[in-house]
Amino acid sequence: MTALGDVRRRRIDELAARAGQVPEGEGGVSLTRSAVRRLRRDPVAIAGAVIVVVFLLVAALAPLLAPRDPVTQYLLSEIRPGSIPGPREGFPLGVDNLGRDLLSRLVYGSRQSLLIGFVSTVLGVVVGMALGVLAGGLGGWVDTVVMRFVDILLSIPGLLMAITVSVLLGQNQYALMIAIAVVQVPVFARLLRGSMLAQRGSDYALAARALGVRRGRIVFGHVLPNSLSPVIVQATLSLATAIIEAAALSFLGLGDPDISRPEWGAMLASAQDFLSIRPALAIWPAVCIIVVALGFTLLGERLREALDPKFRR
Amino acid sequence: MSIEALPPAAPDRSAVPVLEVEELTVTFTRRGERPTRAVDGVSFSVAAGETIGLVGESGCGKSVTSLAVMGLLPRRGVQVGGSVRFNGAELIGAPDRTLRELRGADMAMVFQDPLSSLNPTVPIGTQVTEVLVEHRDMSGKRAVAEAADLLDRVGIPDPTRRLKEYPHQLSGGMRQRALIAMALACSPRLLIADEPTTALDVTIQAQILELLRELVVDTGTALVMITHDLGVVAGLCDRVHVMYAGKVIETADRHELFARPRQPYTGGLLASVPRLDAGRGTPLTPIRGSARDAIPWAEGCAFAPRCDNAQDDCLTEVAGSTVPLEYDGPGRELRCRHPLTYPRQTPAGAPSSGSTDSGSTSSGSTASGAGR
Fold this sequence. Notes:
The complex is a heterodimer.
Chain A: H1 2-19, H2 31-40, H3 43-60, H4 62-65, H5 102-138, H6 140-155, H7 158-169, H8 173-200, H9 203-210, H10 215-227, H11 229-251, H12 264-271, H13 280-307
Helix pairs in contact in A: 1-8, 2-13, 3-5, 3-13, 5-6, 5-8, 5-11, 5-13, 6-8, 7-8, 8-10, 8-11, 9-10, 11-12, 11-13, 12-13
Chain B: E1 19-28, E2 36-46, E3 51-55, H1 62-70, E4 78-86, E5 89-90, H2 96-102, E6 107-110, H3 124-136, H4 140-153, H5 159-163, H6 172-184, E7 190-194, H7 202-219, E8 222-227, H8 230-236, E9 239-244, E10 247-253, H9 254-259, H10 264-271, E11 326-327, E12 333-334, H11 349-354
Parallel strand pairs in B: 3-8, 3-9, 6-7, 7-8
Antiparallel strand pairs in B: 1-2, 1-4, 4-5, 9-10, 10-12, 11-12
């Protein structure tokens, strides 16, 4: 458990350290703009972006795209133990064990998965950044207290923590979001704090102090904007993790109990019992989870390289 | 302590100094390590319109001195002792708030590397107006107009456009000008320039020095120039304090220092400057060893291991003191037992300094070429 915490801590610190470097020789283009320019030439980044955009569109246009209502039961007469109807006219992917259209459920499921992913990541980023700013901006004993707390959180395996929190908060989709966010908080706190520490010792922070600029202004106006790029990258990567974790929690039965909102993880869970009869019931939601997570990961990895001065050619 | 009072100051220096530093010490402490004294009893003063130079090689305590004066050293692990008076008010131990209000408004600083001293993610304009907002209660359009005016004053063409640009879009010289503009925003009475030209190429260096000189003349700002470049000293400073291993080892007016360096270290510094008239292939005359060879002042003269004039008494206490900083003629102070001597020394200065030289010193090592 501690070893796992150590590995994560080291990885976060590495990211933070790398963010401290100021790129040189970038003739006339700001860091963000040149990063975007490089992303647009990068086929892997484009692939990631396309996947992400497609799923976002699907989620946004779910009512238009889904051929049927995701909760209405069809073909009930043909469902019997040992046989679930496969693809046919009007049901491109067939129906699940309760006769609900699989394609429609997948389409609506994207809404729930992406929503949980986004909300929990945003929550994690906001709280984590607040802790990071507190620790990295104030320093001293505040830093020590906050970081020891964060270290404790980090040493608990993510899923275990998410399960604990969601059990404590009860079963609803908000509890799920909070549970996943809690896992992200220490990562962002440590990342931001590390990269702010690097920036706080920088020459421009000293120069600003020499001009009598207030500490609050130095922290928020100078140090913070220069410390954000690893946080942005990590947030993109965290979206993938959050979606997987949401699915995992639903799979474990800790997800949203409202059956009117299909969710990939929950679909996976209920497909378990019918793997031998109709494996497609499990395969399709699994593919969706994998592809979305892949999309965010590709985008995030390439974003990191684009924002990282070491990878510049 | 009474050293400051002893030498009769030149007439134009009788004015109340803007900055008086007395017996400044800075000690860095780290758990489990021996404390390091980076600055050890440094004293100097600057009057309005005067420029003094703090000269020495890397690690001799120049920059730490300036940070201590500005109150910019971290509070943890650093002990600052002695006295720093700005316009007569003591700064050592003053509350943070007082210091912050002084910084930028009454005393300002220009740093060595203009690129890293500017925030890469914030436009120049924001960084200049920040000072105006902080200290001159300006806001919005007025601050922007004033910022453009400031950039114009330090010689940046098309200032309104430049205000919107990011530091990386400016040339090195322009960045340093922008930093100087920020330092000048509130017409400070004291400006500390910490190697302001080191990161710039030679032609730009000359322009920046010219700008600083004009500034001193026009506004009567007191300027403390920290440098290891003797050319800068020659062009700009009225008085020079040469530092070695945290202590001032020689103080003199510029002309005096260049004409007759007394400390063998100063002599070595001047001798090691490459000369255009020396002819091709002539080897340079460096000071042997490096700053790391310094010994603690408590055990004798820190420069002794590298010094050609060193004798046994340089490394021992004499009359309960190691090498003290002593009166060495009008306007000069010297920390050396065996200084460089010159055949025709100023008659007034000779006897007093001779008393510290115990006999056999005049070992013929004349001014510069002495080295090796």
